[in-house]
Each structure stands twice: as structure tokens, then as C-alpha cells.
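2024-03-11 09:14:02 INFO queue: dequeued item Myosin motor domain-containing protein, len=298
2024-03-11 09:14:02 INFO validating residues
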Amino acid sequence: DKARNYHIFYQVLRGMDRGLLSKWRIQPEAKNYLYLQQDDGKEPVNLDDAAQFAETEAAFTEMGFSPAETHLILQIVCAILLLGNVCFNPINDGEGSEVANPGVVEAISELLCVNPQILTYSLSNRSIESRKSMIAIVLNPQKAAESRDSLARQLYDKVFLAIITKINLKSRINEDGEDFDRCIGLLDIFGFEIFVENSFEQVCINYCNEMLQNHFNFVIFTAEKNLYLQEGIVCETIEFKDNIDVIREIEGMFKSLDEEARIPKGTSKTWFDKLKRGAKLSNVSFPNRRVGQVFVVK
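2024-03-11 09:14:37 INFO prediction written
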């Protein structure tokens, strides 16, 4: 059930110049990185990561990326890999944390061109903006690791969007510099998946699918029926399941989760307890108290 991480990570490790990897303090074995240790350990059949890396580089060139731009993208990819290896030691009776391997942070800082002291501080502290000032909150090792992972996701997201933007610009302008009116829209999303336990990411994916389903229902059924009525066309009422209650439920959960994240000592348990207290007025159920913090959105 555990798929491997994004292909680009393995392509970089197995296809990039060894001298450059060494310069960036990257070891070529996937087993050395926390973010690449979450799968089942099985190598995909008939998949040559080194050959695919060459294809990726060629695709960057074809889409108009300069060597410097491609180089920067690969730098950030390597920085993301290293981020997962940053560890934290508890301090102040476990209330705070400090980076246990500053050499890794130094390597990341070089790749991202940022100050290592500022990055170190940011990984183990969080700032909340009040009306009059900024409040610094120390993070325990668990919270610091969550902050580290959040930074890695944001970096990947920013790189991904930058690549898409560049490709879109390349695709819509011809050799004469004129814009094309035509476009091809591609939507590639994960579908609903059945797991014993859904992660936060899967909840977000399911929420996205619920929103798409709601939009589909509106365009195909509601809007089309209204158009028929405006034109005086008699049509039968088509019954369909409205999922707006599920959408509002998940949005309410996200809002309360966002509020909990802003509380200095907010935890998943305190948020879960609040969720249970409001369950009588919602579509959330708690099937089994013995299995911990598990709930179901009906």
C-alpha cells in the first residue's frame, strides 16, 4: 500500500552527475533519506531512474528552461531531500528543541542560499503575529519535525508551480511572439482511496473530489435544468445525491484545525476532543473509542 515518493528524487540520486551530488553533500543511496524510507522497499519493475533523469533534463531544455534554471530546480530538490534528515534534540525539559545535526542544515542553507542561523532558528521556533507584535513560540522535537516537513512540502509546491508556469508560457507563445487562443486543460488528481486510516493529505484529496463532484452536479443537473426552465422546455427531475453537507463538514473541520494550530499548546488530541464535543450537531461519527483518535465523516 505504501508507494514510493516522487520519481524526481530517485532520478536525481541515480542519474545526476556524481561530482555535483558530492558537492551538494548528497549521498546517492535512497536509503539514506527519511523521505525515501516510507515505501514498502520494493523497486518498481522496468523503471530506469537514471535514464528517466536524462529524459527529464531533455524535457526541461525542450520547454525553454535555461541550464541555470534547471540547475536551481535540482538544487531545491536536493535541499528537500536533506530537510527530511534534520533531527531535533529536546531542551528545556522537552518544551523546546534544537537541531541535532547542524551540518545538514548548513548544507541545506547553501543549496537554498539562505542564512544557516536563520534557518536553524526557524525550524525550532514558530512566530505568531498579534495586533501589536510578533510572538515567538518554541517547538518541541515533534512540532519541530512537523514544521520541517511543512517547509519541505512548501518548497516542493513552489517549485512545481514555477515549472508549470514556465511550461504554460512556453506553450502559449509561438515563434513570432504571438499568443495562442487555444489551450489544452489537463486535470490529474488522485481518486477516492480506501485505507485503514486516512492521512491528512488523503482527507484533502477527498475534499477536493467532493468539491469536483459538487461542481459536476451543479453543471450537469442544476444549471442545465434551470436553462431548460428558462427556455420553457419541460423536463423530468433527475434525482442526485447532494454532497454539500459533507463539504461544509470538512470545511468546518479545516477551520477548527487551523485555529487549533495557532494555539501554543494545541495538539491533535485537543482538536480531536473539541471535534467530539461538537459531534452531536454534525455529520461526524466516532466508530470505536478503543482505536484512538479516529472519526468518520458521513
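2024-03-11 09:14:37 INFO annotate: The chain has two domains: 7-172, 200-297.
2024-03-11 09:14:38 INFO item closed
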